Amino acid sequence: MKATTYGAVRLGGIAVGLLLLASVIFPRISRAAEATDQGRQLFEKRCTGCHSLDRNKEGPMLGNVYGRQAGTAVGFNYSAALKASRFTWDEQRLDKWLTDTQSLVEDNNMDFHVAKAEERTEIIRYLKAISLSAGNGSGTQRPKS
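-> C-alpha cells emitted (145 positions)
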C-alpha cells in the first residue's frame, strides 16, 4: 500500500507542477493571441483595400511577406525599384515601409502609410505571426487560382 500511496503523491506533485507551468504559459499565449487579433483587425481596416493574405490584388499578397525577399510575390507586377531592392522583409523594414515607403525604396508604387507607431507594430506582429505559421521557408507564394 505504501508504494501505491507514494505513486499517488508523486503523480499529484507532477499534476500540480503541470498546472503551475500552464498558469505561466497560457496567459502569455492569451496575450500573444490578443495582440495578433489587434493586428488582424488593424490589417483588415488599413490594408485589405489593396492587399489580401492569399491573393494578389492592387497590392501583392501579404500572407507570407515576413521573411520574403521584397518584390518576389509570384504573379504580382512590382515596380522596377522594388524588384531591384534585394532585401528581405523583417520588422525594421516593414516598419520603415509602413512609415514612408519612399524612404525605403524610392519610385515604388505604394502611396500609403500608417502614421501611428503602435498600429504599425501590431500590423507587423500579425504579418509575422501569419508568415511564420504558414512555414515561410522560401519566402515565395503562389497566388490562388
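The domain at 39-133 is CATH 1.10.760.10 (Cytochrome Bc1 Complex; Chain D, domain 2).
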